[in-house]
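quick one: alpha-L-arabinofuranose bound model?
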Amino acid sequence: MGDTTIGSLRRVADVPERLFGSFVEHLGRCVYGGIYEPGHPSADEDGFREDVLDLVRELGVTCVRYPGGNFVSNYNWEDGTGPREQRPVRRDLAWHQTETNEIGIDDFHRWSLKAGTEIMLAVNMGTRGLKAALDELEYVNGAPGTELADRRVANGIPEPMDVRMWCIGNEMDGPWQVGHMTPDEYADAVEKTAHAMKLAESGLELVACGSSSAHMPTFGTWERTVLTRAYQYLDFVSAHAYYFDHGHKTRSREQMQEFLAAAEDMTTFIDTVAACADKAREANHGDRDIALSFDEWGVWYSDAWNEQEAAWKAAAGEGLHHEPWPKAPHLLEDVYSAADAVVEGSLMITLLKHCDRVRSASRAQLVNVIAPIMAEPNGPAWRQTTFYPFAEAAHHAKGDAYAPQIDSPLIHTEAYGDVKAVDAVVTWDGESREGLVLIVNRDASHAHDVSIDLSSLPGVAGEASEAKAEGEIGGACVKVTHAEILHDDDIYRTNTAAEPDAVTPQPLDMTANG
Ligand code: AHR
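yep, here:
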């Protein structure tokens, strides 16, 4: 018996496929030099890197949000359509880069077919709005026979793309967002846009912007205002959260401890937004829940970005026209440690434990930019430490999610008080009778021994005799086919292009007993 026990499972909900989504933004080298690099040895006939496509499939991504992010709020979707040589080159105000428009929705649709992923499209509510959203919808999903749908056909895509999930803007509460709005302004805009989009296609699934983080001054008020006003047209509200080790330069144990417990913040975030959505339903006498789309989550060393932005501004000097507008610059290329992978695993566990309300999620982002996959210019692609917890869940978390009762020693954090050292989730597919147990040790100082009792899974207990020869966990009929651990004695160890397999999952010794 270890010092931690995991058992007594409570069913949460079926695991939605879209929980394993990701995010591709026109930002730095996510698109250009990430998914697309014509001239790369692995580039296919469309210029897409096949080595990256292979890793995307290996990661198990189901749905990809596109094209932003902050980028979308000053983007003209039409710029990325039609013959490439005629597409305009523009300045992107969000990331201060030059956008060549070599890739647009048509190209991304082709990429998605190759990657085997659904697309979730975001529309520009910053410099544009309702009209541009309706035009884009007609272009993307329209049956041939109308002007914009026929333009798509002429551009080589005869069939409607059938994009179901649409985000109405991005982080419109954030003062950094081009065209940002007050809660009332956005509530008005989203209500009208969602109404019109559903007139065009009633089967769409529409996502309103929620707060950019749980620490925004309007957090809560924003959700209540927006969801109450537009309740009848909305299916999802977005949530975004990034975490980083504030002490990664000083390496203090206390700061690391707090970072490892970051999922506590995500839990509060989810509970608060779900409560706001419930209030909006009640106010509208509705009978349907607005779900959460956690469409940006992950570890992001955002202080590094803030320093970079400040350095640019200083370097730009006083003169007009001297600011840099680089093409596909190296931006937000965080290299993740073993500790970062623990946090991402813990965030994934949190999403699964709340999948009754979180019905879609996108880990931000996919390639090069705060990403699990890195692609060297004209060189190899490799997996970051954070690749592994995502891939494990995406491939094996099927059927229903169960939140276990966990008895574990407590660890103290400044931000969240005393929290359990160990967190876990269980999934179980009753049909295939296959399951997954994801466990994370959030204790920065100690290892913990864990005992797992799966006897409360439906159809598992009571068949123990059949499984004797295979080995049992907690007296139930379960055979362990595969057990792995992601660990490094140096919690700051990373993978790199030169040493891509420094931190990888290793076989885990498990004792099965009756
Ligand atoms: O993912 C990076 C950025 O983070 C996105 O563009 C924005 O939506 C968020 O602030």
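The chain has a mean pLDDT of 93.
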